[in-house]
Amino acid sequence: MREFIIHGHPASPFLRSVCIALEEKGAPYRIQQMAPGEMRGEAHRELHPFGRIPVIDYGEYRLYETQAILRYIDVEIPKPELQPSDPKAIGRMNQIIGINDWYLFPQVARIIVFHRIVAPALLGAVPDEAAISAAVPDAKLCLGELNRLLGDQRFLAGNHLSLADLMLAPQIYYLAATPEGGVILKDTALLAWLERMNARPSMKATLPPPLLRLAA
Ligand SMILES: N[C@@H](CCC(=O)N[C@@H](CS)C(=O)NCC(=O)O)C(=O)O
Fold first, then answer.
1. Dmax of the chain from CA atoms?
2. 211 or 68: which leads in pLDDT
3. Dist. CA 22–CA 203, nearest whole Å
4. Which atom of ligand 1 approaches the CA of 53 most closely?
5. Long-range contacts of range 206-210, CB-CB < 8 Å, 24 or more positions apart?
6. Each residue of 124-170: pLDDT tens digit?
7. What distance in angstroms lies between residue 52's CA and the mean position of ligand 1's atoms?
8. What residue's CA is closest to ligand 1, atom 1?
9. With contact defined as beta carbons under 8 Å apart, do 20 and 202 qualify?
């Protein structure tokens, strides 16, 4: 099997989702690390015109946008399947991925995780407490809704691992490590789900760099 090349930084939860997918599939990959100073530079824009990470190369094929990458990997390497066949479970999986991309990451993780964990660890910055406090209501809304959708199921879209779990686990891993996320997640089914996810070999093999792991 050819090796997947993943461009980005291993601190990125989106990049981790791709790594988890490849670990679950048993597919070879390597991270082509981009230094924080290279982000949004000319070389980065050539890979990803919007200046985000991750981007993958598989032979001559290049792709960005994490949910597109995950769906591609799941059909390029069919086993084990990471997308359900039941229509309602497909709907739920896609809904949860949408919640991540539209609400959880931009309104919550990008603020709370960035100011609490990433900026102090990588940039030596002091957390912006006002920005963090302003994001707490959205954190309650997003995590509360994900907890409701999970209900008593084993995984987010039902009783089988799916792309929804792969997309959300790296984001909630970081959020759970913040004081704000810790309070919101305390004693929830979502936290128990995260603990089950954290125990998977694919999650253990893709932990963030030690500096961020300590912070988290
Ligand atoms: N929609 C993109 C979002 C990816 C994203 O925002 N990644 C973050 C890192 S976790 C990033 O590139 N941040 C750089 C920036 O915002 O300048 C995807 O799904 O891949």
1. 49
2. 68
3. 11
4. 12
5. 206/16, 206/19, 206/20, 206/23, 206/170, 208/10, 208/11, 208/16, 208/174, 209/10, 209/11
6. 899 999 999 999 999 999 999 999 999 999 999 999 999 999 999 99
7. 4
8. 65
9. yes
Which residues approach ligand 1 with their CB closer than 6 A? 12-14, 39-40, 51-53, 65-66, 101
The model's confidence at residue 172, banded by pLDDT at 50, 70 and 90, is very high
What is the identity of the amino acid at 178? T
| Residue 171 CA, distance from chain mean position | 5
* Average pLDDT score, the chain: 96
The per-residue pLDDT for 88 is: 97
pLDDT value at position 56? Answer: 98
DSSP per-residue string spanning 195-214: HHHHTSHHHHTTPPPHHHHH
- Per-residue tokens: 185: 């997640």
Pick from 174, 190, 181: nearest CA to 138: 181
Q: Is the pLDDT of residue 37 over 90?
A: no
Q: Whose CA is nearest to atom 11 of ligand 1?
A: 52
Neighbouring CB atoms inside 10 A of 146's CB total: 24
216 or 46, greater pLDDT:
46
Q: In terms of residues, how long is the chain?
A: 216
